[in-house]
Amino acid sequence: MSRIILSLLLVFAVSSCKNDKKEISEVSETESAVIEVVENEESQESQESEETYEVSTVKEFEVHPISHATMVLQWDGRTIYVDPVGGGSAFEGHPEPDLIVITDIHGDHLNVETLQAVSVTKTKIMVPQAVADKLPSDFDPQVDVLNNGDSKERSGFTVEAIPMYNLREEALQFHTKGRGNGYVIEKDGMRVYISGDTEDIPEMRALKDIDVAFVCMNLPYTMTELQAAKAVVAFKPKVVYPYHYRGKDMISDVGKFNGWIMKSGSGPQIKVIQLDWYLE
């Protein structure tokens, strides 16, 4: 399975973003169709290889995509499952989770049978109230309910619940504000953002000091590649993983997303890494 390891070094120099000359917000959907994609000067290894990037601390951080919104993060000797679905067999070969975070009630984020298969007594499960309401009572001792803006420390990680919701009128029924959570997970100064199902909301654009971000893009449920790129340029994570990019009728063009980021003035400060989230 594809694996990325970030070797996190204590010394890290970040170029100033104050002199950005062109933000993606200046580019319309129509104009973007004729923009020449600016490619990374750094060569990209195949998705099956290990890649090493400098971030901002000294801890190991591994990303294992399972499918769509589901992933395993191995971080400083701990294991986090994000939106575990797909049955227990999807997680064979991975350590038992110390922490599980679930973003929303939809079936690509919440599956009770999978949760029963992968969680163990030590596992803490962080969820919004709408998810907690759908869990059997035998999970009660393990569950922490976080509403938007809440935070809690578990297993050495501070987890903050970030709003996730739709902005477009035609999509408001998919994700109402306050029902689901994105998350910022922090340990020893390293901050990882998981968007959940959202559009380029103000709360995302206002994020600060994000080392690694997982950002969704799929229609009609979340946002376009351009919306996602604009949001990423606004909060400037050091590394961004596009994920959750298969929609109702199509797979989003992650290359286009990458190209818009590289075209912006912030492009040199943001590393886009594409993994294979869809094996079938």
Give short descriptive properties of this protein:
seven-stranded mixed beta sheet, 6 helices, alpha/beta, 280 residues, Metallo-beta-lactamase, Chain A
Structure in words:
The chain has six helices and 14 strands. The chain is α/β, with parallel strands linked by helices and 280 residues long. The chain has a single domain, classed as 4-Layer Sandwich (Metallo-beta-lactamase, Chain A), CATH 3.60.15. The strands form two sheets. Strands 1-2-3-4-5-6-7 form a seven-stranded mixed sheet. The longest helix has 11 residues, at 225-235.
Strand order of the largest sheet: 1-2-3-4-5-6-7
Along the chain, the helix and strand elements come as EHEEEEHEHEEEEEHEHEHE
Helical percent range?
Answer: 10-25%
If you consult CATH, what is the topology?
Answer: Metallo-beta-lactamase, Chain A
Strand tally? 14
Major sheet:
7 strands, mixed
Question: Can I get a quick summary?
Answer:
The protein is α/β, with parallel strands linked by helices. The two termini are 13 Å apart. The chain contains 6 helices and 14 strands.
Tell me the layout of helices and strands.
Layout: E1 4-7, H1 29-32, E2 60-67, E3 70-75, E4 78-82, E5 99-101, H2 112-118, E6 124-127, H3 129-132, E7 143-145, E8 151-154, E9 157-164, E10 180-187, E11 190-194, H4 202-205, E12 212-215, H5 225-235, E13 239-242, H6 254-263, E14 271-272
Parallel strand pairs: 4-5, 5-6, 6-7, 11-12, 12-13, 13-14
Antiparallel strand pairs: 1-2, 2-3, 3-4, 8-9, 9-10, 10-11
Helix pairs in contact: 5-6
